[in-house]
Structure to design on (170 residues):
């Protein structure tokens, strides 16, 4: 359980650093354009609003925040195509059927042998993480944690005791 507490602490630190970064910087939120199978632009969304993508067959369900609610948009596109178009963003594949925004991860919990991502919005059900994607997911989280830390090093040096306690209480 100590290992999971360390990850919760890292996520708390990532959220603290991300909230301290000025929106006027180069690392400000960016727009993601999602196209259908025909190449037609179907949805432009700010990365800060995007939580996760869920795929089923040739359809992608995009889950994002709009007017303080989590809404979804159905898009006809291959998962591989969307995954390739999201390279270089904070989106990461965590399962055959899911991609998550690593900036929206609250913590990763373990249930038996399975692992699940708990996002910052408690209305969203936990998202499964498969063994084959776990290592890459953790590397991406570390990358964003390190880049966010270096971007806001002057603003935030470590998570507060309250944040660590909150993360451990979850």
């Amino acid at each position: 359980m100590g290992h999971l507490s360390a990850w919760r602490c890292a996520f708390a630190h990532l959220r603290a650093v991300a909230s301290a970064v000025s929106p006027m910087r180069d690392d400000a939120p960016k727009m993601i354009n999602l196209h259908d199978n025909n190449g037609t632009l179907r949805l432009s969304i700010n990365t800060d609003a995007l939580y996760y993508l869920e795929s089923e067959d040739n359809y992608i369900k995009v889950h994002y925040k709009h007017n303080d609610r989590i809404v979804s948009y159905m898009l006809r596109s291959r998962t591989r195509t969307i995954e390739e178009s999201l390279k270089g963003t904070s989106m990461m594949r965590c399962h055959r059927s899911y991609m998550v925004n690593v900036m929206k991860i609250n913590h990763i919990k373990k249930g038996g042998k399975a692992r699940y991502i708990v996002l910052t919005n408690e209305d969203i059900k936990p998202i499964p993480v498969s063994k084959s994607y776990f290592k890459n997911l953790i590397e991406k989280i570390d990358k964003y944690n390190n880049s966010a830390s270096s971007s806001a090093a002057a603003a935030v040096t470590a998570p507060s005791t309250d944040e660590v306690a909150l993360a451990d209480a979850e």
